[in-house]
Design goal:
By secondary structure, the chain is α+β, with helices and mostly antiparallel strands. A hairpin with a 4-residue loop joins β4 and β5. It has 2 domains: 131 residues, Roll (Diaminopimelate Epimerase, Chain A, domain 1); 124 residues, Diaminopimelate Epimerase, Chain A, domain 1 (Roll), CATH 3.10.310. The radius of gyration is 18 Å and the shape is globular. It is built from 6 helices and 18 strands.
Length: 273
């Protein structure tokens, strides 16, 4: 077996400074790869998301994997992928990606990246019977869900910060993850959130773009705003600007900072035989 080398990057997404935001690994492939191999690489790299870019006819193919499963939608992995392509010389200021969700677009926004993502606001639901115990006894103000996640509004930012959920029980809920949120106590910000996804191998995520496809429109309606700033209260922190100028669209803007560039040593032509 000949040894190949695939360019691999580690990018801090939705980061206001280095060593903040949500790290994503990005692998640049010269052809499509077996999903089982991509899953193994994602487990090896052990990031909340590993993005795999491959050539496509008029755009790029893009797939995302956590250490345990494939994602259908991932904001911070898409932001990181676009940043890597521009750093590698991609001339266009607008990049189209073909993904499991459909076509997604990334745009240059000065020194930041804008993502044309779907608006997928949560609909109100009756809280699952076990939700109170999952939330460690915290009482929700409102509970909803979309096709991906459960969303829980709490009464204050302090409650979001203090939350200590039962991750084992949370991983048994029939949802990708759980986002908890409240209006921000900082008048320069719109809302805060935390996101937990133990079911897919992410106990607590650092900055979750896809969750803001719901949080943006949810708080936009509540606050009467079309431009919002969301802060994810993880250990590393993350900042996501959401614009709701177009129907059905959540346009998310964030900063990406490439921290590591190296090579992934693999089998022949970068793939196992």
């Amino acid at each position: 077996m000949r040894v190949g080398a695939i360019p691999v990057f580690l990018v801090d997404s939705f980061a206001e400074q280095p060593l903040a935001g949500n790290p994503a690994a990005v692998c640049v492939l010269d052809k499509s790869a077996d999903p089982a191999w991509m899953q193994s690489v994602a487990a090896e790299l052990n990031q909340a998301a590993t993005a795999f870019i491959s050539p496509a006819e008029a755009s790029y193919g893009l797939r995302w994997f956590t250490p345990t499963s494939e994602l259908t939608l991932c904001g911070h992995g898409t932001l990181a992928a676009a940043q890597v392509l521009w750093e590698r010389g991609e001339p266009s200021d607008s990049i189209a990606f073909e993904t499991a969700w459909g076509s997604l677009t990334a745009n240059r926004e000065g020194d930041r990246v804008g993502l044309v993502f779907p608006s997928i606001p949560p609909r109100q639901i009756d809280p699952p019977d076990e939700l109170g115990e999952v939330l460690g006894g915290t009482t929700p103000v409102w509970v909803g869900r979309n096709d991906l996640d459960v969303f829980v509004e709490l009464s204050s930012e302090a409650d979001v910060r203090a939350l200590q959920p039962d991750l084992d029980r949370m991983g048994q809920l029939d949802a990708r993850g759980v986002a908890v949120t409240a209006v921000s106590s900082d008048p320069t910000r719109s809302f805060v959130s935390r996101y937990f996804a133990p079911r897919i191998g992410i106990p607590e995520d650092n900055a979750t773009g896809s969750a803001h496809c719901a949080l943006g429109p949810f708080w936009g309606e509540r606050l009467g705003l079309t431009r919002l700033i969301g802060v994810q209260l993880s250990a590393r922190g993350g900042v996501v600007e959401v614009r709701l100028d177009q129907p059905g669209e959540a346009y998310m803007i964030g900063r990406a900072i490439t921290m590591v560039h190296g090579t992934l040593r693999t089998g022949s032509q970068g793939f196992p035989r």
